[in-house]
Structures are given as C-alpha cells and as structure tokens.
Amino acid sequence: VLEVKIDTNVIGMASGSAVNLVTTAANSILNPIGLSVTSFKQHMVILPDSVSWGGAAAWAYRPGTQSAFRSSYADHMGVQVHEFGHNVGLLHSGYGTGSYNDHSCMQGNPSYGNNGPEVCWNGPNSYTLGWYKDYHKDFDPFNSNDPFHGRLVGVGDWADDEAVVGTHYVVVKISQSGSNDLFVMYNRVEGPTKGVIFFKNEVMVVEGGTDGRQTWLQSHIPAGGEYAIENFSGQSRTLVIKNCRQEAGAPDYSEVYIALDDGTGVECPAECTDDDSCDDNDMCTVNTCSAELGICTFTDLVCDDGDACTDDVCDPITGCSHTKSTCDDGDVCTVDSCVAEVGCSHESIPNCAVMETGQVEL
Questions:
Q1: Spatial contact of 82 and 73, defined as CB atoms under 8 Å apart
Q2: Residue 163: is its pLDDT beyond 60?
Q3: 3-class SS at 19?
Q4: Is residue 47 scored above 80 in pLDDT?
C-alpha cells in the first residue's frame, strides 16, 4: 500500500482528474527507485467519497491495469472483482433493459456487500477467460450430425475436481450467425457460486462474444423446462434448449439437450440402458450407450472395407455398400487393372498410338 498526499482540494473534483493527481504523486515516489504505477500488473486508486463519482462506486480501464474506488467501497469484494473484470477486458452483463441487470454474475451488479457475493462470471466471459477450457463444448447446430446431449456441472464441482473431461461440461457455446453466439451454463449454488440468488440452480442462456463485449442473459431454464428460438440464426428452423433433468451427486449436474426442431418437436432422449436402446434409425451411425451416464452417442460409421478397388459409401437406410471400381481411364492404349492393396493401375501398351481416324495402331 502506498499512501500519497496531494496539495489540491479534490472535493467535488471529477474522479478521473483526482486519479491523475494521485498517479503523478505516486510516480514521484516510485520513479527514484526505478518503478512507476505501470510497473504493477494492477493498481487500485482509493479516493475519498467527496470526489465526484457520477453515481458510481468505482471504475476501471478496459483493458488496463488501473481501477479507482470510493473509499467506502474499496474493501467490497463484489465491487473489486467487477472492476478487475474490466481490467481483464470484460464489459457488463445485462438482462432485460438494464445493461448491469444480470445479477447472477460479477459483471452485473449483484451486490455491494463487503463479503460477497460469492458468484462467478457468466458463460461468454467464462469462455473468454478460458479457466474451464478443458470443459468447453463448441456446438454448431447447422453443421453437426447430431444434437448436443450432455451434462453441465457448476463451477463448484469443477473446483472440487469432480467433473470428468469429455463427460461433463461447464460452458457450451452455440454458434449462430452474426457477431454474437449463445453460451449455456449451469447456475449451480455451490462452492465459489454459493452466493447465487438470481435464478438459482437453473440453466442460463447468455448471448455474447469471446472478446469481453457486453453480454445479455436471454433465458434461465428450470429443470424440465426449455427455451425455444424461432428462425434461429436467420434460418427457418427453431432451436430448442432443454433442461431435461437435474441430479445431485458427485458431481451435481444438469442434463441438457440442444437440437433444431425438424417440425416434429424436440423431446429429451430417454435414458438408455444398452446400445440397442440408442437406435437412431440411421444405418450410417454407430450407436453407443454410456451405462454410467445413461446417454446415447452417435458416431459416423466407417465403411472402409480395406479394398482399394471398391468405392465405399453409406446410405442412411441401407448402410454401407462397396461398389467395384471401374478404373477406366478412357485411354485405349493402357491396360486398366486393380490390385486390392494399391488400387487402380494403368499400364501403357507398347507401341500403341491412336490414329486421327480413331483406329488403334500397334
């Protein structure tokens, strides 16, 4: 902590101007020892409440290293973390008509309490910061063969190392046209987020980017509920995000299903018991049931028969087929043949030439 004194009366002075005076005074102390305020990754400037704050409790540069606080709020954790969020490049988190009104996360204004709130950042900001990157899932509804079906865990269970990579996810990013995507998280009240009071234990759908821009809470989905977006991404189809069920355990999780409605509706898949119960009526997928999770997975069937002399294709109704390659190169002066290990070959016929009449001369 560096305490500085300035000779100017700052009562009623704009807080930015007062910060400039404090910075100059601080540098006069630090410069002789080869330092300045910019030598530090972050620095807080604490000023009297009598400075003009324009109604704010604090402010910070985005991105940057400096933040400024009213003295009466300088020790309030929620205010500190909100401003540090600006320093690392994050804007605000809104809901409805208010750009600060997503009170489930730090970049809203969830509390001015000095011991909280114990909440974290929302989906877009968590994805941007990359803390849970091994538990991210990118899902593009229009370029994916299958819907997303998986288990979302809260930040608390991630922090307790109860989540399993590839089995559980903290953030799902849904690609859509335009500059913003959708981000889905489980707003679990536990551990680092045990202070959540806004849409507790619901699945949150937030629109934003991966560059810290303003984010907007679009929906909060309770267990058994859904959020549907008509004409999703400018297309004629409806995207449906379902919170199929929630279970307590190690970890607690919310089972989420995300799919485009093909006109027949979107329903949560039944829990599978074996591979046969995962039939998707597509002969070109391998259907597997995770007995532990009760969730089906569908992977593309590989139709390669190991024979380079066949064309391997798959039809969703009939399955794999292997048609004999013709190997015809259209050249009458070659002998076309095929070897299973290497494929087609075209051996030239000695002394063969095609005359202008089209006849073959040997």
A1: no
A2: yes
A3: helix
A4: yes
The 10s digit of each residue's pLDDT in 220-245 is 999 999 999 999 999 899 999 999 99
Residue 52, C-beta contacts closer than 8 angstroms, at least 6 positions apart: 12, 13, 14, 15
CB 147 within 8 A of CB 129: no
Q: What is the pLDDT of residues 318-330, one digit of tens each?
A: 999 998 888 888 8
Angle at 94 between CA 90 and CA 95, to 5 degrees: 160
Percent of the chain as helix, strand, coil, to the nearest 5: 20, 30, 50
Our CA angle for 82, 87, 88, nearest 5°, is: 95
Closest CA to 144 of 268, 260, 269, 290: 260
Mean pLDDT of 330-356: 82
Buried b or exposed e, range 294-319, using 16+ CB within 10 angstroms: ebbbbeeeebeeebebbeeebeeeee
With CA atoms as reference, report the closest residue to 59 among 103, 11, 9, 109.
Answer: 109
Can you tell me the distance from the alpha carbon of 192 to that of 174, in angstroms, rounded to the nearest whole number? 25
- Please name the helix (run of DSSP H) or strand (run of DSSP E) that holds residue 129, with its range, or none: helix 123-129
Residue 29 contacts by C-beta under 8 Å, 6 or more apart in sequence?
A: 2, 4
What is the rounded CA–CA span in Å between residue 301 and residue 284? 5
Residues 6+ apart with CB under 8 A from 75: 114
Per DSSP, the residues of 204-242 read EEEEE-SSS--EEEEEEE-TT-EEEETTGGGSSSEEEEE
β pairing state of 360-361 and 353-354: antiparallel
Give the 3-state DSSP-derived string for 276-313, with helices as H, strands as E and coil as C.
HHHCCCCCCEEEEEECCCCEEEEEECCCCCCCCCEEEE
CB-side exposure of 185: number of CA atoms within 13 Å?
A: 30
Instruction: Tell if the pTM clears 0.85, that is, is over it.
Output: no
How distant, in Å, are the alpha carbons of 41, 169, 259 from that of 265?
52, 25, 10
Which DSSP letter does residue 92 get? -
Going by C-alpha positions, the residue among 109, 145, 108 that lies closest to residue 124 is 108
pLDDT at 362 over 70: no
